[in-house]
Structure prediction request, 199 residues.
Amino acid sequence: MTQAAFQPSRRRILKGAALAAVPYALLPLPRADAQPDSTDYPPAEWQPADSANYTASTRPAGYSLDRVIIHVTQETYADTLAIFQNPQKKVSAHYLVRSADGHVAQCVREADIAWHAGNWGYNTRSVGIEHEGWVDQPSYFTDALYTQSARLTAAVCERYGIPKDRTHIIGHYEVPGTDHTDPGPQWDWVRYIRLVNLG
Prediction:
């Protein structure tokens, strides 16, 4: 084979240049309400809740953040995601932690107000973290769940200057007016706060 066989023709070069320029003109403009797939907490996977299940906001500019609220789902990880994505349910949390491996999904931006606490004042000032499991089944509270959740909570506390203590990291049962008991008596608060402080 000769060297000339490897050189593209003038027509092929011009055709390639034209094709390279076309895609930019044909790309649709991004939607004004589109949100990127990135998360506020980089290890998390973006699994957005339906927009009917939270309130758009500009926190911490709109509302100051001074709490992290710990929840237990009383559902599986997959079912909880489905609930958050169902516009009929009117519930969400910022994050969901899977029991088996501690995998974290972000469902609502931290700037927005998730509907997790059942108390508007607490919703506006907190980040809600759900944990897969049941309050009466401590086997769901795995080492991986505690470790990854504590890292998430530490990151949230550092981002907003929230003290890493039991006054500012609370259970759903401690929200005024709630009838919930989560995370329940099997949740190891001493261990969890220690892990949060280890970061």
